[in-house]
Design brief:
239 residues, alpha/beta, Trna Endonuclease, Chain: A, domain 1, 2 domains, five-stranded mixed beta sheet, 12 helices, 55% helix
């Protein structure tokens, strides 16, 4: 994950916290420095709808080590330059005690979003392009897409907690991004999931994606016991 990708993932967390239409969360904004008189780059800005001045600015740092006082100082200098705007510093690996004290003294909040979490957050826009995901499920949807990228079927063989439309949006987004891995997971769901309806839905998605072979269908028929699922697989065999 590149630093820019990390910034965009962090943006998705703040879009959850500051949802539209009341707020606009914008990546890579230029604000005029009051002291330097130069345009200062801000990673993420949150604006209240119809207002030009941000209500919060966010600096996101992807580092291998905890943020130290020197890096915290750079963010503090930036915040001082752009004015009295509430600010949050976000990092992948946390903050040293000195950095935490320094930021706190300046009234700047700090937040840790690890790379594993950011890798899920980055897929949220792809899910939302397939379906208007409810705010309650937008972040978890991204994490399920990340599992599909890795070909990890385990999260899908248990109860996901996703409503059907969100579940389908996750699958639709992942099939467009990494079809081979997603098809493998869908096949595992069609074969092994305990819920008859979920297996049925997985078979339908595999058929829609045109990735079910005759041997796949035969193998699924050999273990399937639900009458509706058997009828669907036999229909696919005929077609």
């Amino acid at each position: 994950m590149t630093p820019k990708e990390y910034e965009k993932a962090v943006l998705q967390r703040f879009r959850t916290l500051f949802p539209p239409p009341r707020f606009r969360v914008v990546h890579d904004v230029r604000l005029k420095g009051q002291k330097t008189k130069a345009d200062r780059q801000i990673d993420v800005c949150i604006f209240e709808a119809d207002y030009a001045d941000p209500v919060l600015i966010v600096e996101a740092k992807q580092h291998k080590r905890p943020i130290d006082a020197v890096r915290a100082g750079a963010t503090i200098a930036l915040v001082r330059d752009v004015g009295e705007v509430p600010a949050v510093m976000v990092a992948t690996t946390g903050f040293s005690p000195a950095a935490t004290n320094y930021l706190g003294t300046e009234g700047i909040a700090h937040l840790t979003i690890k790379l594993t979490e950011a890798r899920g957050l980055r897929w949220v826009p792809y899910v939302e392009s397939a379906f208007a995901v409810d705010d309650e499920f937008r972040e978890i949807s991204g994490h399920f897409v990340e599992a599909l990228r890795l070909g990890d079927s385990a999260p899908f063989l248990a109860e996901t907690g996703l409503p059907y439309e969100e579940w389908r949006a996750v699958m639709s987004a992942a099939l467009g991004l990494f079809p081979t891995m997603t098809a493998r997971v869908l096949y595992a769901i069609a074969r092994d999931h305990y819920d008859d309806a979920v297996r049925f839905n997985a078979v339908q998605l595999l058929d829609d994606a045109d990735v079910l072979t005759a041997s796949d269908i035969s193998a699924l028929l050999a273990t399937e016991q639900d009458p509706d699922n058997i009828d669907l697989l036999r229909e696919l065999t005929v077609n």
